[in-house]
Amino acid sequence: VSITVVGTIGIDSIGTPFGHADDALGGSASYFALAAANFQQVNIVAVVGSDLPDAALDLLRASNIDLNGIERANGKNFRWGGRYHMDFNTRDTLFTELGVLATFDPKVPPSYASPDILFLANLTPTVQASVIRQAPGTRIRVLDTMNFWISNTRDDLTDVIRQVQVVIIAEDELREYAGMSNLRKAAQTIFDLGPSLVVIKQGSYGALLLEKSGAYFAAPAFPLNDVVDPTGAGDSFAGGFLGYLASVMAKGGVAQFVDFKRALLYGNILGSFTCEAFGVERLLHLSREDIAQRYYQLIAFTHIEASVPSA
Ligand code: AMP
Fold this sequence. Notes:
Order of helices and strands: EEEHEHEEEEHEHHEHHEEEHHHH
Bound molecules: adenosine monophosphate
Shape: globular
Number of strands: 13
Structural class: alpha/beta
Largest sheet: 9 strands, mixed
Strand content: 15-25%
Helix content: 25-40%
Strand order of the largest sheet: 5-4-1-8-9-10-11-12-13
Radius of gyration: 18 Å
Distance between the termini: 56 Å
């Protein structure tokens, strides 16, 4: 068993300047798992409400994702609504209705307790902490979060940061958490708490990799012709990033910095696919060839020979 994720399975209402989707399957665990399952089998720990259609879970089940850790509780499913601005990088959250998430007490099946990678997707920090306790055999613990938890549950979030090796976070959220604008300095406040790697998501500008030792790498986003809906791009980024790393670890390897660099490209690529349709739609129709093609294109788009030809 390589990847266990705890996160939300949501029902989303999304508006962009050019369209909208209501009651779409979303949530941090859904996007993450659908992206990561292209590389390794994924186990989800989550709670869903009585109003989540069975068909939504069927979509996940059909995609190399194990759902034995999903609890169906009596009550309303987690719902989130957001509207994007013209730049597609900024959005307003219109509502966050926790529903059954408010009382979620996760139970990690024993078969999920020793993964190569445990991904604590964006979710209540105390739930993330409980899953850490229940998965003591984990090799790498990775955390994602967002502004909602930074402003509402900061101390609990800090407790979780102290227990992980990798933090994946959007740049504005890192600035908000650290209370400073310089990203290298802001990352240092995370390193001071224990993690050795910070991955900074920059929306349509790509992503940065910062290691405690000072090592640094940057990758641009994959340039798309049409962005339809960026919802879930960050979670899909994490899925591509960690899915690739899990595939390296599954071959018996220990992830090195060069693997993290390659993983950063895969993160950007899975994020780019998600942006091409509303909700999880594009992730449902993705082949390994589609992913491989974008990987080599992204390298070609950014590679330059270091030597200067003589005039
Ligand atoms: P992203 O665009 O990567 O930030 O992911 C958006 C997804 O996260 C949506 O599908 C939402 O259902 C989910 N989401 C929104 N707010 C929260 C929250 N506070 N906690 C967990 N998941 C959330």
